């Protein structure tokens, strides 16, 4: 009964709808909060940068503990608590933002302006708590519930993972556009109100749907006790029994209902990282994390660079749409390749495709029209192109349009048109085509983690994986801060490709070990 989830009341459908609502709310909120922080702080990126660092730092420090909490508590309690904390934090944060926008002048006069600082702090802390709760919910639903709902069937699991990723891709494009339109046509206050309303409705619907899934799938109420380190072989045997070649059998072996008595031993951060390092898929997970240290995506850094190269806002929005389509193609490719060649080989093919496409980005650095100028790295030597030297990647915001996750600037000097567009065309061609391999690879590693991590360690290992991803993302922030000029962008591209190559090399090592082990076992 577990796998007959295609119908409108089946568990799969309910998970897709609650996932779509959750992702839409998340994307809208992430986009809106960065806009609000820039608007509040006199159109300066400082608050946004602080917020980015706080979010990354807290997941980095608390990822393992959040995952452990997911492991040690009944599934329904974890889902409901995460959902409640996330939505209430966003709701309160929206109310505070509305008050700040409405009474900004008055607030600035209270306590010699210190009330403003208090408000900013409250906003950033609440938004951070919402993000931590969202991380817990993602680990619980997308890394644990899905595995149980598909009855430990590899084919069904691949299908569900791919569908969730497609929903994610579509919401990533549409949600920021929707909330951006509301904020542009109405005002920031109405934008806050819109997010507030969305969150409250979403909370009720998601709560109801997840409760229903929990009732429909009895296996969700059974959870094994958290294993101690010495018992790891038992866990491995259980995993091997759980994952026969695509057949659903015995998916509750040795598991017992989770009660408070089972989980009295608490975990430290160090134990969490140890558990991650012990996993057979450790290298694959690390490889995925290394892919986060990159400027080759559609974030404000690449788009800021595109502006300095004379690319218009409407063209960028179009390119973003195309990149979403190639991302969706990657999810389709993943399901096809997995069926034909198996999971480990799918990762190898995706890696090669990803790296191949990124070579175009490397070529763009040396192509005609590239502003790369290494002399800037040597202090006190004048740049050969002074008119470009003064424009940082994120120009001063005299007037900003918001589209999607991107800032569009009016006041980029019109004389920054490059002598040739070959470089920028190669760059975007590489970034857009690489997304096919990237998303297929991402899904491969996600499923490897789902299949090979013991049920009692799923939360903690995925928590550490989130920490690793954020750590590598932080590195990419630091890279940009240290080299913010368009002439340095080429160096950032080369460093990004080196990190990505390192990540895929780690995956190749994992694949080699996995194949060797399989040959040894047969």
From TrEMBL:
The chain crosses the membrane at residues 13-38, 45-66, 78-102, 114-141, 185-210, 281-307, 313-335, 347-367, 420-438, 459-483, 489-510. GO terms for molecular function: iron ion transmembrane transporter activity. SUPFAM superfamilies: MFS general substrate transporter. Keywords: Ion transport, Membrane, Transmembrane, Transmembrane helix, Transport. It is found in: Membrane. Its main location: membrane. Gene3D superfamilies: MFS general substrate transporter like domains (1.20.1250.20). It holds the Pfam family FPN1. It is a multi-pass membrane protein. GO terms for cellular component: membrane. InterPro entries: Ferroportin-1 (IPR009716), MFS_trans_sf (IPR036259). Belongs to the ferroportin (FP) (TC 2.A.100) family. SLC40A subfamily. May be involved in iron transport and iron homeostasis. This is Solute carrier family 40 member.
